[in-house]
Structure formats: structure tokens, C-alpha cells
Design goal:
The structure is a single chain. The protein has a single domain (7-118, 175-317), classed as Zn-dependent exopeptidases (Aminopeptidase, 3-Layer(aba) Sandwich), CATH 3.40.630. The relative contact order is 0.16. Helices cover 30% and strands 15% of the residues. The chain has a 9-stranded mixed beta sheet, sandwiched between helices. Strands 6-7 form a two-stranded antiparallel ribbon. Helix 3 (85-96) crosses helix 7 and helix 5 packs antiparallel against helix 7. The protein is α/β, with parallel strands linked by helices.
């Protein structure tokens, strides 16, 4: 499968520093076993929006042998991907002038929406990695590792175990240092840059999802807006997102079944003028039955995400927002 598309902490974990060009494009970290960077970041220029669109789960830079080490091969790897949702992010960012952060690492290797302590110890041939510890200032999340989808995915519904061999602590630590640490440092730095320039910053964490069942007697949700139940962004921003999606003839849901995860917990700081929400898009909206992107669907979803970014930036700039304490 081929991909088409603070300094102290970096030294501590051995992460490679950003490489930049004059056009605002940077990259950093690396995908173990390849020559690919862990992520690419296109920074917005003068006149751009105070918005960062991030895509953590669409990476397709598979190292040689990784697919062969999976019990179910490419099928399982693709099920873990937010398949081709990075194309929507690229279209949206180009259209509205937002910054864009795209991870190239496959989710099969490491999940960037999990904290480094969310580890299934049964995956390892020996002791788990010593660097697998939570950041102390974050809220404690429900562990996904118990369901097979922790920092290192282990199982999928209907498929069972994903890997032929256990993971070593050394390899796990290498992935954390090369991918997870530099990605989140880059994300945090870009939000800080946008806030310094504009006075506030907005993160849209972009994902895709399998088609959901109907909600009660209503239609199946096509998009899910997550804000950690009001903890990661101003409540009025989430409400306005729902309204925009409805106007776009989508069927939005709020925090169910996806409320966001580690990314929003770590980077959403609404009381400090950094707002973060997660957007899930039904893959049937932009992929064909073979899992390939449809031009019309991809373009339409890119337009929706672009309009969402502009709406949220405009609301904050105009003072049309309010923060309320998290409901839970």
C-alpha cells in the first residue's frame, strides 16, 4: 500500500526537528521503516484563517513487511484507516486558507488519537514500553486498549487479533518517539502560532467513520460533531456546526457515538481561546464501494469542511460565541 499524498521534548525523545521550506510547508518525525516523515504541515499565510485542520488517521505510508505481519493483511489495515479523508482536508484547507496537518503514519502502527499510556500489555513479548505514560495534566480517558483499539491497535470487531507476532517494547518506544511525540508537538505549536497571530485558534480534527445505523426512527447520521461533551470548545461553536451541517443537507449527530479523544483532551483549551472539535464523516459520502474516492463526494465534503472553518472563525471574530462548563 502506497501513500499518495518544544525543543527539549524533541531532544528527550529523539524526535527529528521540522524541516521547512519558504512556502510554509514543514515536515517532522519519521515513519519507522520508511524514508517518509511522520507528518506534513502546511501553515496558513497572511490573511489565512486561525484554523488548523488536522488528519491523524489517514496515513498510508506502510513500511515493508507491515501488511504481511497482519493476520488479515490489507483488509485489516484499510479498516483501521480514515480512508482518504486527507483529500477532503486538503481541499478544505486550500479553499478557506486554513493550516493543514496530515499524519502519514498508518493507524495500524500507532494511533495518534490515544495517549501513550493507553496500552494493551498483552500485546508485548516482554515488559511494555517505559515511555508509555499519561501526561499528568490531562483528564483520564476511558481506556480503548481493553477494546483492542489502544495506542497500538490489537483487535477489530469481526476479525479478532490483528498481528501474527507480539510487539516489542523497543519497537513501541521507537514509534512513540518518531511519530507520536513530534506530531503532537507540531500540532500544539501551530495552534499556539495561530493564537499569537489572531488572538485565538480553532482545531478541526478530521476523521471518517463507517456508516452508522439509524438514530431511533430518524435517518442515519452522516456526520458526528464531537467536543468532549462541551470540554474542548465553546458550546455555541458546536451548536453552530450542527446547524451548518443540517443546512448542507447532512444528518448531524452530537457526541454520539464519537465525542473525540486524546487530541481534543490535549489540545482543546477554550478558556485559553484554543477551541477544538472533532468531525466524523460517513465514508459512504465520498468513497465508492471499492473504497476509492469519488470526485464529486470528496469535493462536496471538502466544501462543507471549508464552510465550517470559515463559520467558526467568523463567529469568534464577531464575538458570537459563549463558553459553558462541560456537561460531563
Amino acid at each position: 500500500m502506497k501513500d499518495d499524498a518544544p525543543q527539549r521534548d524533541s531532544q528527550r525523545f529523539g524526535a527529528r526537528s521540522d524541516a521547512a521550506d519558504d512556502a510554509g510547508l514543514t515536515s517532522g518525525g519519521h515513519v519507522p521503516g520508511t524514508a517518509r516523515p511522520a507528518y506534513s504541515l502546511q501553515r496558513s499565510g497572511e490573511g489565512g484563517l486561525p484554523v488548523l485542520i488536522a488528519v491523524p488517521h489517514a496515513g498510508r505510508a506502510y513500511p515493508p513487511g507491515l501488511i504481511e505481519s497482519m493476520r488479515h493483511g490489507e483488509m485489516a489495515a484499510q479498516r483501521l484507516e480514515d480512508r482518504f479523508v486527507d483529500r477532503i482536508g486538503r481541499m478544505a484547507a486550500a479553499a478557506c486558507g486554513a493550516s493543514l496537518l496530515v499524519a502519514h503514519v498508518p493507524r495500524a502502527m500507532i494511533d495518534l488519537n490515544r495517549d501513550t499510556g493507553d496500552i494493551d500489555r498483552g500485546m508485548f513479548s516482554g515488559p511494555p514500553p517505559s515511555s508509555g505514560a499519561r501526561l499528568p495534566d490531562l483528564p483520564r480517558q476511558q481506556s480503548r486498549a481493553a477494546r483492542g483499539l489502544g495506542l497500538f491497535p490489537r483487535r477489530l470487531p469481526g476479525l479478532g487479533e490483528l498481528w501474527r507476532q507480539p510487539l516489542s517494547a523497543e519497537e513501541a518506544e521507537r514509534r512513540i518517539a518518531a511519530v507520536h511525540v513530534p506530531y503532537h508537538l507540531a500540532l500544539g505549536r501551530e495552534l499556539a502560532r495561530l493564537k499569537e497571530r489572531h488572538g485565538y485558534a480553532i482545531l478541526i480534527d478530521l476523521h471518517s467513520m463507517p456508516s452508522l445505523p439509524p438514530a431511533g426512527r430518524g435517518a442515519s447520521p452522516t456526520h458526528v460533531v464531537g467536543d468532549r461533551f462541551g470540554a474542548s470548545c465553546a458550546s455555541s461553536l458546536a451548536a453552530s456546526s450542527m446547524e451548518l451541517l443540517s443546512r448542507a443537507l447532512a444528518v448531524p449527530a452530537y457526541n454520539r457515538p464519537y465525542a473525540g479523544g486524546y487530541v481534543l483532551d490535549r489540545h482543546g483549551r477554550p478558556r485559553q481561546d484554543i477551541h477544538a472539535l472533532q468531525l466524523e464523516i460517513d465514508r459512504a459520502r465520498y468513497l465508492d464501494q471499492a473504497g476509492q474516492p469519488r470526485e464529486q463526494g470528496t469535493g462536496e465534503e471538502g466544501r462543507i469542511v471549508s464552510e465550517l472553518a470559515q463559520l467558526l472563525a467568523g463567529l469568534i471574530a464577531g464575538g458570537g460565541w459563549a463558553y459553558s462548563d462541560a456537561a460531563e
